[in-house]
Amino acid sequence: MRSFGSDNHSGVHPVIMQALTEANRDHQIAYGDDDYTARLKALIKGLFGATAEPYLVFNGTGANVVSLRACVQPFHSILCAETAHIAVDECGAPEFMTHAALRTIPTPDGKLTPERIAPHLVNFGFEHHSQPKVVYISECTELGTVYTPEEIKAIADFIHGYGMYLHLDGARIANAAVALQKSFKELTVDCGVDIMSFGATKNGLMMGEMVIAFRPELAENLKYLRKQSAQLYSKMRYAACQFMPYFQQEIWRENAANANRMAQLLRTRIEEVGYQEFTQKTEANILLFKLPKEKIESLLQHTFFYVWNENTGEIRLVTSWDTTEEDVDFFIQSLRLIS
Prior knowledge:
The chain has helices at 14-23, 35-48, 60-71, 85-88, 93-98, 114-117, 149-160, 173-180, 216-219, 222-228, 237-248, 251-273, 293-299, 325-338, and strands at residues 53-57, 76-81, 101-105, 131-138, 165-170, 195-199, 209-213, 286-290, 306-309, 314-318. The protein has 339 residues and is an alpha/beta fold. It has two domains: 14-248, Aspartate Aminotransferase, domain 2 (3-Layer(aba) Sandwich); 253-338, Aspartate Aminotransferase, domain 1. The strands form two sheets. Strands 1-7-6-5-4-2-3 form a seven-stranded mixed beta sheet, sandwiched between helices. A three-stranded antiparallel beta sheet has the order 8-10-9, covered by helices on one side. Helix 12 (251-273) packs parallel to helix 14 (325-338).
């Protein structure tokens, strides 16, 4: 069944699947000492700069947890938007694994700003309170909004003045890069990001997540933190080999461009049916709009999607790298049936 439930629902790009098949030959040394992982490390440095240190992990939550563990002590706090993935979709893993406090900040669009962060930068040096140490942002956000490079840099410059780190969750960074027509480096290193979770599973890979540290002190213990967090592959070549064509053939760009384009088409078609109450801009591949409860229940009989907020009647639709115009047509037909 095809749907707009999540970009995790889509399959693996054929070129990526071929790369996996080609890697499935002979023997390679385990735990990252294979030829594929070595080539990937060199490729990442070429894309992000010489300071970039990549560490492959199993999944997005693992990438976020390992990244945050590199930044904090248990007496620290992590600041994020109240809609952030680490706050609402990771079952408390960041707090469980780091023992640091998670402090959420209300935002209308899922995006933090220096002004929204500033009131939470208090009680430094006071032993009765958790010490702010990391700001977490995601690109794009869970609401489908996108940070511009200027917005990311403003946050980084502001919190660096307090000796804090900026962690960027790049689960959908390809969609943001395409939307902004920027490179990955222009959205991270050049903006002052200190460490990131780089994701590609949502964009055509079978299993593609990395922690990439841009500061030596954060990279220093990552290999131990990865192992301790149960995120160390034994047959790491199968994760690494996918990224070679993903980057070198710019599959990331092709896939993300299709997902973004289909999101714009889907929004246009929904508006043509008469549903105008979108609650966020559609800047990448996520749409949020409102429907009456009875219409949501009826629509779910025809197609699958997630209800984002039951109280407000918001549903969330996510387009994928393999979404087609036929998929859009089917959803619109379903929407017309309940109208």
